[in-house]
């Protein structure tokens, strides 16, 4: 049976984070994950996780100044001090709530200098995370939703993972982004499975519930099971209506 993690960056956005964790439990999810929890005291989140018996599977490094267009900091030349501070912040929060994965966001950048900065920051993140048994994740984002984002494809991500050469650096394989940029999901999942640390799903092209569109998730989830992936799959979609109104997909896909 497939396990599902509710991504609280998109689901139950009308609720406080602790209440969203409780809502995910009541809805039948098996775990939770989030984007940027830093405005909420870690002790409050930890209390809700203990109450529900959930693990917060992952969180992101800060975007930076979103109002100024930032979408991460860690591949931006000249902002290395901010990037390393963001990494320390994310790892400290992850330790406080016992989160096993931290997604290091690259940001809007391009070129070989940006790649060198990203690799350096990832080595820094992996070294800090190793002491806490935390995995660092990188995630390719599609150019339609995240124009200019440094990391755009799984091919690019693999090269960076190989260059960093840290055992706790893995790929976040978001089927939505990969389908838009590259397609061929079944073969990519099989080929990249040794490098994959987390899988996320959403419908393509609308990023709604994973029950329609270009991707047949009945096939993808069975394929993941055959490949030996038994960790919770992240439901990172934007509900077409309310979160609760759109949850019928979960039982259909289990």
Strands, helices and their partners?
Blueprint: E1 4-7, H1 17-27, E2 31-33, H2 42-52, E3 58-60, H3 80-97, E4 101-103, H4 112-130, E5 135-138, H5 154-164, E6 169-174, H6 175-181, H7 185-192, E7 196-201, H8 217-226, E8 233-235, H9 248-253
Helix pairs in contact: 1-2, 3-4, 4-5
Index terms:
40% helix, 13% strand, 9 helices, 254 residues, 8-stranded parallel beta sheet, alpha/beta
Describe it for me?
This protein is an alpha/beta fold. It has a single domain (4-253), classed as TIM Barrel (Alpha-Beta Barrel), CATH 3.20.20.150. Helices cover 40% and strands 13% of the residues. It has nine helices and eight strands. The protein has an eight-stranded parallel β-sheet. Helix 1 (17-27) runs parallel beside helix 2 (42-52), helix 3 runs parallel beside helix 4 and helix 4 (112-130) crosses helix 5. The longest helix is centred in the middle third of the chain and has 19 residues, at 112-130. The N and C termini lie close together (6 Å). The mean pLDDT is 98.
Q: CATH topology, anyone?
A: TIM Barrel
Q: Going by CATH, what is the homologous superfamily?
A: Divalent-metal-dependent TIM barrel enzymes
Binned, the helix content reads 25-40%
What would you say the CATH architecture is? Alpha-Beta Barrel
Q: Strand order within the widest sheet?
A: 2-1-8-7-6-5-4-3
Question: How much is the average pLDDT?
Answer: 98
Low-confidence stretches: none
Determine Rg (CA atoms, Å).
Answer: 17 Å
Number of strands: 8
What's the CATH class, please?
A: Alpha Beta
Approximate shape: globular
């Amino acid at each position: 049976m497939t396990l599902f993690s509710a991504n609280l960056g998109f689901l139950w956005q009308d609720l406080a984070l602790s209440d969203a964790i409780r809502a995910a439990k009541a809805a039948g999810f098996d775990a939770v994950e989030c984007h940027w929890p830093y405005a909420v005291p870690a002790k409050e989140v930890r209390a809700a996780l203990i109450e529900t018996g959930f693990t917060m599977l992952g969180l992101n490094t800060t975007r930076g100044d979103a109002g100024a267009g930032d979408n991460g900091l860690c591949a931006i030349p000249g902002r290395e001090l901010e990037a390393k501070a963001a990494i320390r912040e994310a790892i400290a929060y992850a330790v406080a709530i016992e989160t096993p994965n931290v997604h290091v966001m690259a940001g809007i950048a391009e070129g070989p200098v940006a790649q060198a900065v990203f690799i350096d920051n990832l080595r820094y993140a992996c070294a800090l995370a190793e002491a806490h048994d935390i995995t660092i994740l990188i995630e390719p984002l599609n150019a339609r939703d995240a124009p200019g984002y440094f990391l755009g494809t799984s091919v690019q991500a693999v090269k960076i993972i190989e260059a960093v050469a840290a055992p706790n650096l893995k790929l976040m394989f978001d089927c939505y982004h990969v389908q838009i940029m590259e397609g061929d999901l079944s073969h990519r999942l099989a080929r990249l499975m040794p490098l994959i640390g987390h899988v996320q799903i959403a419908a393509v092209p609308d990023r709604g519930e994973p029950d329609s569109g270009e991707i047949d998730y009945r096939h993808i989830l069975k394929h993941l099971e055959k490949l030996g992936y038994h960790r919770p799959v992240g439901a990172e979609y934007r509900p077409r209506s309310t979160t609760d109104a759109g949850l019928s997909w979960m039982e259909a896909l289990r």
